[in-house]
Amino acid sequence: MALPPNMVAPGLDLDDTAGLPDLEIPIDVPMEFPNGAEIVEDADGGAEIFALPEDGMVENPIPEDIPFDANLAEVLDEATLGELSSELRSSYKEDLESRDEWEETYVKGLDLLGLKSEERTTPFEGASGITHPMISESVTQFQAQAYKELLPSGGPVRTSVLGLQSPEREQQAVRVKDFMNYQITEVMEEYDPDMDQMLFYLPLSGSTFKKVYFDQAKQRAVASFIPAQDLVVPYSASDLTTATRVTHVLRMDENDVRKMQVAGVYSDVDLRGSSDEETDAVRKKVNELEGLSKNYSDDVLNILEMHVDLDLEGFEDVDPMTGEPTGIRLPYVVTLDEASGKVLSVRRNYDMTDPLKRKRQFFVHYKFMPGLGFYGFGLIHMIGGLGRAATSLLRQLIDAGTLSNLPAGFKARGVRVRNSDEPLQPGEFRDIDAPGGSIRDAIVPLPYKEPSATLSQLLGGLVNDGRRFVSLADQQITDMSPEAPVGTTVAMLERGMKVMSAIHKRLHYAQRTEFRLLARIFAENLPPQYPYEVAGAGQEVKMQDFDARIDVLPVSDPNIFSMAQRIALAQQQLQLAQSNPEMHNLHAAYRRMYQALEVQNIDEVLPPPPPPPPPPQPQDPATENGALISGQPVQAFPQQDHEAHLAAHLALLELPMVQQAPPVFGALLSHLFQHINLEARDTVNKELEKINTQPQEQMQQLQLMAQAGAIDPMAAEQQMIQLQQQPPQQFQPDQIEARVAQIEEEMIKDLMPKLSSAGSDGSEDPLVKIRMQELSIKQMEAQHKTAMDQARIELENSKLEQRAVTDASRLELQEEIAENRNAVNQERIDVQREAMLRRT
Q1: Residues 303, 273: one domain?
Q2: What does the alpha-carbon distance between residue 418 and residue 416 come to, in Å, rounded to a whole number?
Q3: Most confidently predicted of 28-37, 96-105, 777-786
């Protein structure tokens, strides 16, 4: 059976011709088409033949009115799609092969969790297969701690106003925070469980990912968790932003794929014959640890969503000046079926209004520890060796105990034990057939030792080293004494939180990136109004709220990663505030302590402080005089009539009770000087205003004189132009202050006679009298102090003289005692000498 030479057979699958008896088409020899053909092999060993268009003809011309967000797979020809699929699948396989060692290390490390019991037959049947729980314990502690900090019950989002603060922007920030927390905690059902699971995977693999996008099927924003094995990048990639290719491996049910096709997200192509065989080594190991095995054929497809840069024919990047293609690859999202190679969608991945056509980011990289390349390091990489060593030592100790409790050995050939297959029970005696002699000589047990104490100590040291990697901070905080100095506490906190604080900062940074992507999704895809009533504005302000004025941040503090650390810091702040309450706000310190303890309804336990007193307001002179007499503070204001106030306050000085009360007199003088200062500044401002308005007055005079014919109108107009061109006269601050001082000096000179007459009633000035009394008291105190000093000096001299006499008497007594002792010794020597002479 032969095909006509002019017949075009796009999409012809060679495997579909098996039922045709005479059809033979060799793969390496294209059929004779007018302009040739292209053969594209698929993953199943078959091939597809695509006819090339004739010269001057364009096959499947691309329409010009294609929407920007359209699925380009609907308009691209089969040949282009086949070539694109083949190239992308080949690149994906190369990316997978480049991380084989990473997968192997990860797969081996998963065995350290000890989730699956191992049946061992070496070195003997029934040997211990236990795995030390050091890795699993560390993972569980980190997951529990990070989950509570990154996803609190009140919502993980907080906001901050960028730039100038205002009540309107603060209300906007509150609305954005409430809406995002509502979406995350109430609407996005997968967020909480995905975050919980992600924080368990993170310390194991060292890298996990979140994908933030708008789901067309669910019609809402989604932030789904992606394990590290399901996100593939090239060997040369260093981060998600600069990676030339990012592949997300999706395992989708055929029905879900069909829903996406019906919704218009994917092209309506036949995916029958796709294979869903398990090829991921990490997923195989996870299923093995969970005890899952595939024993039936399901309808799950491996869909590759590839974020790549492409230069598609018909959609090239063109120079805006020349209109010629630049050859620059543009960002696209290509979705295809891994098994069949069918392209489901090709969509642009940049904003239509972006002149730079920058790639839109949908993925967020969470790192546990920074690795040497793209992927981070986890506990498997950092303390996996300690986990294997601890498992080996633990098995040796258990095996040693087993062999010591159930020993084996040798027995003589002629010795027989009845029912030897059954173990001996406590209190049981069993018959033995022995040819003769001692049974002890016929049975020789092997010399098994008890479990080694050295191995046990080594195991404890390894376990402590591994645990200290992730739990040092909590141990240090727990061991601190409440009475410890603040510096010691801070030093211990800093020493204990180095590792965990760095990890928590990486999580904080990644979560901040995730929330900003979510804010973009909310602003672009959700309805333009709030789904509930908001405070301070209408529901339709949602689109305006999500602008660049509000920054979205995580609630978690990048410097604090545990409740114990938060309580310790709050306690130290409270101690500092209590040590010097005059310099601190004790109410705020206690409130922070309650917040660290996560106490609900703090206002019921700690009532708010009283509001600050209202600022002083301008008063009339009579009210000020009454306040001065009663000892209350008063203040002068610029808008007051200072001349009237000065006259009223000077009249108050005439009262004898004011003259005889120095505090009232001094307060009244201070208030008078305040009015003098404000009056002087008001006068200077009026002078400056008059100087600056002189050109306008001169212009008005010139205009009137020109109208009256007193001067030439042309000359008057030229002078007016010159006056308009004159810049306003500027004065330096020191010049203004000098003029204010001059006016104050004049006013004080005019005021001094009034003050003197008010205080002179024929008697001595009360202030002078009080000052003289103070000087007299100070003089008496100085004389008394001098007399006391003189008496103290005389007492010291007498003490010195008495000490000298006492020392002299002591020396004489000591000399006398020494002379008496010498005399006694000499007398004893003489007696001994006489006794010796008598004996001789």
Answers
A1: yes
A2: 6
A3: 96-105
